[in-house]
Write a structure and sequence with these properties.
51% helix, globular, four-stranded antiparallel β-sheet, 443 residues, three-stranded antiparallel β-sheet, alpha+beta
């Protein structure tokens, strides 16, 4: 029991956020009342174990101390002399990483509740770290609205839209914490100042373009990864866990009862397994930013891999793009295998049916944009939109609104604006037709 008490006490000292072995050993010596010679080597071993990783959880530090041979040897030799002089119960503080990104200082669960404008009980209810929402059959007590979609491939996509109060909390976290953290330069999805245009631009006029897709991108990113992100940002363990809980969700079992018939059993079982654990909900405002931060290490590895092969790498959400010239063209298939291996090592999988090797002789298409000679919209997409606008002029916009969209005109204007962004000349022609729709409507 005395040894366990010493381990628990030392673990609190080691979690102080100090960066060097000397500082850690000084803090430990104050805790046990004397600067023992074995404290320095113990602090050094601790830094070797955890110094280059995310701030560890206290349970991991306790496990390290219980298994440390040097501490056991010191305990057996000096057990009669060892005593706790000062039991440090000061809560963990923000680590220095916070200063570089100007994230708000939140050092306790009380601070977090005040920052979010919640009572402590409400904070724990929204974070749901015990997974009670997964077992909750009553939709009114759940934090999300659910919509199950069946993809053309037979797999399932689940849209998890947070309810207004949860969405407000997530937007606050996004605005004041996540948007302050820089993402990898290769990332162009959900980043201010970047778009699918900047995603595709580096690949214009290349000899070969390789396009790959990450399978089940958002649900693959689990709650532990998200909590690790917040601990990396410098937040104490308890705060990081609650922030991660607010930004993740475990889908209730009752949601799958509304699935359309005809979904393969394999796809159904995979969806149940993925969504049953805490994951990034596709539909939450925080999910894209957190996905980019979780993917940072992978972006670094893929950028280095591409550079070694003489290629360029960019990513837009789950779409990966690589391009190069003659040397890269010779090794494209083998390179794709290496990319798949990197993703597998990091806990992700490639959706192989969507992998495309596009040489100059075919249309090189990235995120709906053609990149062979210059960035352009596909001719087929342009012709279809032009025909739709023309029919709206001839027969009335309401006759073309086959999906019953309540904001059909805004939808059309958005599509025209997209073409204007990509190809101003073509966009100008479509804009002229669109304005004629407005004239007809006014008349």
């Amino acid at each position: 029991m005395q040894h366990s008490f010493l381990v628990e006490t030392l673990s609190r000292s080691l979690l102080s956020g100090e960066a060097t072995a000397d500082l850690l050993s000084d803090r430990c010596s104050r805790t046990i009342g004397r600067r023992w010679r074995w404290l320095g080597p113990l602090a050094q071993r601790y830094l070797e174990k955890f110094g280059t990783t995310t701030r560890p959880r206290q349970r991991d530090v306790v496990r390290f101390l219980r298994g440390d041979v040097g501490l056991r040897r010191a305990w057996r030799k000096h057990r009669d002399e060892l005593a706790v002089a000062e039991f440090l119960i000061t809560p963990q503080t923000m680590l220095p990483a916070r200063d570089a990104w100007d994230a708000p200082v939140i050092e306790s669960t009380g601070d977090l509740a005040n920052w979010l404008g919640l009572d402590p009980e409400e904070l724990h209810w929204f974070a749901d770290l015990k997974g009670l929402g997964y077992k909750q059959p009553e939709p009114r007590l759940q934090h999300y609205h659910y919509r199950v979609l069946k993809k053309w491939s037979g797999s399932i996509r689940l849209i998890e839209a947070p309810k207004p109060r949860m969405k407000d909390l997530q937007r606050q976290i996004l605005r004041w914490i996540l948007e302050k953290i820089p993402v990898h330069l290769a990332v162009h999805g959900f980043v201010k100042g970047r778009s699918i245009h900047s995603f595709a631009a580096p690949h214009v006029g290349r000899r070969v373009v390789l396009r790959m897709d990450v399978r089940e991108f958002f649900p693959t990113i689990g709650g532990v990864r998200i909590q690790n992100v917040f601990r990396t940002l410098g937040y104490p363990e308890a705060v990081a866990d609650l922030l991660g809980g607010i930004c993740t969700n475990a889908t209730p079992r009752e949601v799958w009862r509304e699935i359309e018939p005809g979904v393969p059993a394999e796809s159904m079982n995979e969806a149940r397994r993925l969504y049953a654990r805490p994951h990034l909900p596709q539909g939450a405002p925080t999910s894209p930013a957190l996905a980019n931060l979780c993917f940072y290490r992978i972006d670094c590895r893929l950028s280095a891999l591409a550079k070694s092969a003489g290629a360029t790498y960019t990513r837009y959400a789950d779409d990966l793009a690589f391009s190069g010239d003659a040397e890269f063209e010779k090794r494209t298939e083998r390179f794709a295998t290496h990319v798949a291996a990197v993703l597998l090592e990091e806990g992700f999988r490639v959706h192989h049916p969507k992998t495309r090797v596009m040489r100059q002789g075919v249309r090189q298409n990235l995120a709906g944009l053609v990149t062979n000679q210059k960035i352009n919209v596909a001719r087929r997409d342009f012709d279809r939109l032009k025909a739709l606008l023309t029919n709206c002029v001839k027969y009335g916009a309401e006759t073309q609104n086959r999906d019953g969209s309540p904001h059909f005109r805004a939808h059309l204007e958005g599509r025209v604006g997209f073409v204007e962004m990509v190809n101003p000349e073509k966009g100008k022609r479509l804009r002229a037709i669109f304005e004629r729709i407005a004239e007809v409507n006014r008349s």
